[in-house]
Structure formats: C-alpha cells, structure tokens
C-alpha cells in the first residue's frame, strides 16, 4: 500500500512553450505540448530510436546498484505501457542543474537524479519530484531529445512512494500532463494511486504510437 501523502507532483517542461493541456474525459489523459504545425498531435519522442537515460544515484536510499535497479524497474513499466524502447547508458555525476541548458550538438541522455530543495528550487514545499523534457524542431515537427527526472530525496521516503513518483515523472518525460481524475497517476497530487490508471495507459500508448515516420 502506498501511504497517503500530501506530496505534490510538479511537472516541469524546460522549454519556453505556450501552456497546452488537452483533457480528454474518461479515460483521462492530457499532453504537455502540442505540435506547432499539427493541431492535436502531441510532442513526444521519436518512436524508432531508444530513449537513452542515465542515473545519478547520489542522495538515493540504499546502494547505488539498488537505486539504479529501482529506476530500471520503473522505466521498464513505462516502456511496456508506451511501446517506447529505453536504453540505460550508466551512472553519471551530472546534476539536475547541468540539464537545464541544452547545448548545440547531440543531446545528453535523460537524467534521473535525487536532490534536495536547497539544490533544486522546484522541489521546495511538498513536491515529491519533477520531470520534463526538452524538444527540438526539425522539418516542422518537434521531438523530445532529452529530459530529466528529479526525485526529492527528503520527500520520497519509501519504496512504493518512490516508484509511484518515478512513474509519474517519467510520464511527464514522455509528454503527459496532469489530469483532474484521481484514478490516474498523472493527477497532480499523490493520493494513494500506485499504478498507471486507464487514462495514463491510453495516453502513454498514444504517445508511443508516433504519427511521423523517422527519417
Ligand atoms: Zn506532475
């Protein structure tokens, strides 16, 4: 059982985009960003390439190997729900602030890290984690090319809570926004929901389908 917690999830998209949320009632899902030249189409990852990710286990509970394994388990669930392939590239010393600016050239892997509010301001208050991705536009189509998940090392204190937070933030990384329904894990507030709900799963599958062939 996930203990009821007052922790809030916060989604952060590290790009300057106009806010976009399309709530679809029952089952509920919403996308963080819409394609600028294709109304209704979500911004997400290229379905034909694996989403590379790395883990900085500093501040996580347990050993580094255990922290990495917990992330890999959560990623496997998101991969299955979405159809996206992920590739773990190893541990890193990269910190969340290093992921704020996207330099020209190849984008770095998605960073999964633990931090405290004195390092990552967005974790202040009752925030359990943040997650989001950065897009690049090519040929009038936007793709996410990197992203980050940061778990609050102080607020996430048991394994079930951590797992639910990881799944939620990875949902943001793929392109899901918050929804009002408390049946969904993409609800903004942790309310005892442990697993993806029906809308979450439909939204993830929709994101993973992709509507543009990769070139
Ligand atoms: Zn959130």
TrEMBL record:
Signal sequence extent: 1-17
Segments of this protein annotated with the region Disordered: 188-215
Record carries keyword rRNA processing: no
Keywords: Hydrolase, Metal-binding, Protease, Signal, Zinc
Transmembrane segments: none
Coiled coil: none
Listed InterPro entries: MetalloPept_cat_dom_sf, Pept_M10_metallopeptidase, Peptidase_Metallo
SMART domains: ZnMc
Domain Peptidase metallopeptidase span(s) in chain numbering: 41-198
Pfam families membership: Peptidase_M10
Protein name: Peptidase metallopeptidase domain-containing protein
């Amino acid at each position: 059982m996930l203990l009821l917690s007052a922790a809030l999830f916060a989604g952060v998209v590290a790009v300057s985009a106009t806010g976009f949320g399309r709530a679809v009632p029952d089952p509920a899902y919403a996308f963080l960003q819409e394609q600028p030249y294709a109304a209704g189409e979500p911004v997400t990852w290229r379905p034909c390439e694996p989403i590379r990710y790395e883990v900085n286990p500093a501040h996580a509970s347990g050993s580094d190997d255990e922290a990495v394994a917990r992330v890999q388990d959560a990623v496997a669930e998101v991969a299955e729900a979405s159809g996206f392939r992920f590739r773990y590239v190893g541990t890193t010393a990269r910190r969340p602030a290093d992921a704020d600016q996207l330099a020209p050239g190849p984008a770095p892997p998605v960073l999964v890290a633990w931090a405290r509010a004195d390092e990552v301001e967005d974790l202040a208050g009752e925030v359990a984690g943040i997650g989001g991705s950065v897009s690049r536009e090519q040929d009038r189509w936007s793709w996410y090319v990197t992203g980050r998940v940061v778990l609050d090392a102080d607020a996430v204190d048991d394994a079930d809570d951590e797992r639910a937070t990881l799944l939620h933030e990875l949902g943001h990384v793929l392109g899901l926004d918050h929804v009002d329904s408390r049946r969904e894990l993409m609800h903004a507030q942790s309310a005892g929901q442990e697993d993806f709900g029906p809308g979450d799963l439909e939204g993830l599958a929709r994101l993973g389908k992709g509507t543009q062939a990769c070139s």
